[in-house]
Design brief:
Blueprint: H1 2-43, E1 48-52, E2 55-56, E3 60-76, E4 82-87, E5 94-95, E6 100-105, H2 107-140, H3 149-181, E7 184-186, E8 191-196, E9 203-204, E10 216-231, E11 243-248, E12 251-267, E13 273-281, E14 292-299, E15 305-309, E16 314-315, E17 320-326, E18 329-334, E19 336-341, E20 344-348, E21 357-359, E22 374-376
Parallel strand pairs: 1-22
Antiparallel strand pairs: 1-21, 2-15, 3-10, 3-14, 4-6, 4-9, 5-8, 6-7, 8-10, 10-13, 11-12, 11-14, 12-13, 15-20, 16-17, 17-18, 19-20
Helix pairs in contact: 2-3
Length: 379
């Protein structure tokens, strides 16, 4: 019985070893087959998706902040040293052109005017006397030998001098009289008083304590200016007929319209932008000077341009380019970037033509001159 059991155990071990060897060989064969398939798949290059270049009419909008200012704004000061007599307007008063705002009094002006009048009368009397003297000498000189020519010349010079003094005195009198008109301040245009810095009895004047601040600040608000600075890249899209829309924080759900009226025609040296102005009619006076507006300026061009997906444009440290496919070779083409809209961007280059094949998802990894296996992007 013992020899038989011994041989049975040995045979069982040999059989187990054979089975394990067969299983191991099968497993190695499967792993080798998988590796070969992966290597073959890696050896087959992936297809690069391309698209045909086309021109489109790209209409975009540029959003920028702007400032609303009054169409006309003036600070009113006293011309003559005087005292405020009566005030006819206050902050918020809507005034008409020529309306009286304040009257002032200056007692010394009456003395100056009286002195000017007396000097003018004295000069007038002197001129009348010298003129009469000259006329008598002329009549007398008609008798030969009675009056010398020298006496006539001196009398004429005296008369002319007195006439000049008379005209000077009259001018001084007129100047003092005109100064009295400056004691009344009137509105130079229709608008709203937005500031008042005086009270009755205040001392005001060009060199007085009251001249530190203006008497009134007058602003025209029924017509306003919207001032915007346009970056250099967009100045070519804006003309004096461009219509824009804007909104303000006070009325976020309301859109206002305006048309460009004035363009500076020069770039600011610091910001490299052009100042443009729009006229805004504000008859309901909802808009105030100083408001910040969110302005939307349409950027449209009559000439179609090349438009590509943003993924086709490569912005590297040294250049901006797209990858063009020529005879299955990658060719880097430098371009200039224009307007952007959602997922597309406008490009410019003299080395591109309609129907050129461009790589849709370009990057610097697609080396210039490398061979590409391409397929056209599905529409």
């Amino acid at each position: 019985m013992q020899p038989t059991n011994k041989y049975s155990i040995i045979n069982g071990l040999i059989f187990s070893i054979l089975i394990a060897t067969v299983i191991g060989c099968n497993s190695n064969a499967e792993e080798k087959e998988k590796t070969e398939k992966a290597e073959k798949a890696a050896a087959v290059p992936s297809a690069t998706v391309t698209f045909p270049l086309e021109k489109e009419d790209l209409s975009t909008a540029f959003h920028t902040p702007g400032e609303l200012i009054s169409f006309r704004n003036v600070d009113l000061y006293a011309r003559e040293t005087s005292f405020v007599k009566k005030i006819y307007a206050d902050v918020g008063s809507e005034v008409k052109e020529g309306q009286l705002l304040v009257s002032m009094e200056a007692p010394e002006l009456n003395s100056r005017l009286a002195g000017a009048e007396s000097r003018a009368k004295a000069q007038e009397a002197a001129y009348i006397a010298s003129k009469a003297n000259y006329s008598r000498l002329v009549e007398t000189s008609k008798t030969p030998g009675t009056i010398s020519q020298n006496d006539l010349d001196q009398a004429l010079a005296r008369m002319d001098a007195d006439y000049a003094q008379l005209q000077s005195a009259k001018a001084s009198q007129k100047e003092v009289g005109a100064s009295k008109n400056y004691l009344e301040i009137r509105a130079p245009f229709a608008g709203i008083i937005t500031a008042k810095n005086i009270s009755p009895g205040a001392y005001v004047g060009p060199a007085g304590k009251g001249s530190e601040f203006p008497l009134f600040t007058l602003q025209e608000q029924r017509k306003m200016r919207l001032v915007v600075s346009i970056p250099e890249a967009y100045v070519g899209y804006v003309t004096n007929q461009t219509e824009i829309s804007f909104s303000v924080k006070a009325y976020p759900n309301q859109k206002f319209k305006a048309k460009v009226k004035r363009l500076a025609g020069v770039l600011d040296s610091r910001l490299r932008s052009e100042r443009i102005e729009m006229d805004v009619f504000n008859n309901d006076k909802k808009l105030f000077p100083g408001m910040v507006a969110e302005v939307e300026i349409p950027l449209s061009s009559d000439v179609p341009s090349f438009v590509v997906p943003k993924t086709a444009l490569v912005n590297s440290m040294e250049r901006v380019f797209v990858v063009k496919v020529v005879d299955s070779k990658a060719l880097w083409v430098d371009v200039k970037k224009g307007r952007e809209m959602d997922s597309t961007v406008e490009i410019f280059s003299s080395n591109l033509q309609i129907k050129d094949q461009l790589v849709k998802k370009a990057s610097e990894e697609v080396r210039n001159g490398s061979t590409l296996h391409t397929k056209l992007a599905s529409l």
